Structures are given as structure tokens and as C-alpha cells.
Model the fold of this input.
Amino acid sequence: MPTPKKIEQVAQIKELIETSTISIAANNAGVTVETMTAMRRALRDNGVKLRIVKNNLAYIAADEAGMPQMKDVITGPTGIVFGFDDPAVAAKTFTEFLTATRAPMTVVGGMLGDRVLTADEIKYLATLPSKEVMIAKLLGQMQAPIAGLVGTLQAPIRNLAYVLNAPQVGLVTALKAIADRKAA
Done:
């Protein structure tokens, strides 16, 4: 018979699974309380949550949330990192903390939406720039051809303005050059 406390824990885990954009499962064996506290603080500063879970409760929550494939990444003593906005931020914050502190925690896998991620895919995701940077790069790529077209269309008018603003000797020489081109 499940206790009210366990029912509440399952409900909390289920809510985190349903509302997160990414969840990263990591083996937390050997992590000290001080390291765990520092990790939670660093993650919280970036809008990411860390939850240490009992596997059986996480399995039940995953089934209730309609994400049974999440059970594949929950093995051993598990801590799950939940990201709610940009998935790359959660992966980057978590992996950077593990690297900086040399915490003995290892990434097992994760979920991005309903897709199962391997540990290598999460490490790759952590190397990606943020969503805002990627959007800015995309917009820059989309704007480049238009800027080139505008420059090409403005060139004749700009060149005429240069000629008209040139000293009189330059104007006569430029008009002669134009006349010679038309004659040829």
C-alpha cells in the first residue's frame, strides 16, 4: 500500500516530467552533500531543477506522465535535472558544473521531449549556443542576401552621386569616359 508521502513524490516527479523541455538522468553515487547543494544552487540560478529520485517512484511517474521510454535512462542511484526553457542551457549548466567541480556524477542519458538521448548527445547539446544566439545567426543568414541585393541596386545611384560631387575636372573626365563607352 503506497504511503501518502510516496504518492505526493510521484505526483511531483510527474509534474516535473510533464512541464520540462529536457530531463537529464545522472548517476549520483559518491556525491557529497556540499557538492549537491552547490549544484542545486548553480542550476537554480539558470532556471534548472535537480531532483534526487527513487527509481521505482520515477518509473511510476514516467508511466503516469505518458513517457515510459524515460525508464530506459533511469538506472542506479539517480538524480534528474529538469530544464524548462532552452534545453541547451540545462545541459550546458549541468555539464559545466560537473566539469568545473569534478563531481563524481556521470550523465546516463536524458529525454528531449519524447526522444531518448544518450550521454554523448547530451554532451553535444551542451556545446551548442543558446537559442537566442542560434536565432540571431539564422536571421543574419537570412538577411545577408537581401543586404547584398540592396547594395547592388544602390551601386549605380551611389556611383552617380560620387561623380556629381567630384571636382569639375573629374566630372568632365567621367562624362568623357561614359561617352567613350557608349560610342564603343
